[in-house]
Amino acid sequence: MKSLAAAAFLVLLLGRAAPAIAGEELVLIVSAHSDVDQLDSPLVRRLFLGLTVTQHGTRLRPVLNEADPKIKDLFLQNIVSMSDSTYDRYVLRLTLLQGRTQPPVYKSSAVLVNAVAADPTVVGYVWAKDVARDVRVKVLRVVWHD
Amino acid sequence: MRQTFLFGHPSLGEISRPWGFPTWWRTALVALSLSFAGHSALAQHEHSSSEFEVFVAAEGLAGHGRPHPRLDDPWLDADVIFGLTHEQFRVFGEYFITVDERDLERFQIGYEVIPDTLIWLGRYHQPASAWDTEHHHGRYLQTAITRPAIENWEDEDGLIPQHITGALVESRRPIGTDAGMQISAGVGAGPALTARDNEPIDLLGNNPGKHGLSFTGRLAYLPDYVGTSSAGILWGHDQLFASGPVALATLRSNHAILTIYGAYADWSVDAWRFIGTAYYVDVALDRPNSDESFMSAYLQVERQLAHRLTAFGRVEDSARMEKSRYVSLLDDHTTNIDITIRRQAVGLRWDYARRQALTVEFDHEVTLSNRGYEARLQWSAAIP
User: Fold this and answer.
1) What is the pTM of this model?
2) Whether the predicted interface score ipTM is above 0.90
3) Looking at the partner chain, which of B51, B172, B225 has a beta carbon nearest the beta carbon of A102?
4) N vs C: which end of chain B shows fewer Cβ within 10 Å?
């Protein structure tokens, strides 16, 4: 009886933990009004490293999502392929070389989604579940999934 | 802050100094700055953005065999970077402040004609310097404390003109899927060869002497288009007009024409980084003087270690500098700067906190008239 109760407790525990991990996806998003339908990985990396990326004559503008530490880690690993300190030095270097401006940082995914939805040139990344039913934005690609 | 910079601050003494450029130039600078700066509405709705960074450093120095601390090592300095971007337009500047010096080192107005190809007008760092175009005046992004002597700025008895006022084109083009090519070319007014220094054009102050034309360029291969490794060739051609009895007597020529040929590599492999550069400098003088030439090269090796430590070492060497009248002219014995002809340096940098580092460096230097040992300790940071 005790082992049955322990197993039930374990299942309950795993059941609570699973939704936060299983099926998680980090997706790249743009406004639903954007002309951009796809961006390959090298262009995405170039964009978030501060270089100029244009699509259909439009200059794209990256925004950084630091709503939670896991998003930042996944961005560093899967989009720019750099450590935090290396990325920081990289964007500082671009500022020193040419005065290039660093991408705006958002601490809230909801605010970031609003910013993306309002501007067809802005490119950002959020959890897929945060834009699952949001018709104002469209998903360009899955950046990471568990 | 940007407006304060342009109009000058009374305590800095800039506003009271005579301007070296006509009124239209000053008016144009102010109007351009005001048209971009301070318009938050513009920034929010018309895709403008601005950048403001300050690189600060504080340094202690002890030495043996050299009479004075060097002027190029101020105990405290701040390098203020500001940039404004509006669509393809850029305004960008670098203002360097030490206890003894306040200089608008760079001020550039640019237009990005196609992605990653920019045309700049203004005062810029010439692209034929491998080190200065990477590190500029900020010290935080430079692993070592000292810079190689051949890369010294003009006011540090630098031998190669570094600040040019004119036009600059910078372009980065892809090669294949990953690699790239970097092309930079500049033309403009170089420095005037005054009593003991090359004096570049000062956008905010007086400009004594005659400024000749300068042509500079760089062609580099980038193994990764977005990476920091590169290798390439450098070229410069500077017409320097001598003014003043000291310059004329030492040089025995009314002007010197410098032609610089160089090659460099700045290459990172895993935890290693190699920075190597070699320059050949030809100095053409008025007849009947014969032309002269000298060479200078350096190699810096860096290795990232555990605990955010980076070890580094650098070797600098030169040839025929002792025989050059041009070098002799710039080796100013009335100040405490001697031109270094050889140096060995080792050091350790510790990035102990985000955007802050402590660096220690030990040097053995041989100058034209002296030799000695130096130990330096530096704190450097980037704000914010």
Assistant:
1) 0.81
2) no
3) B51
4) C
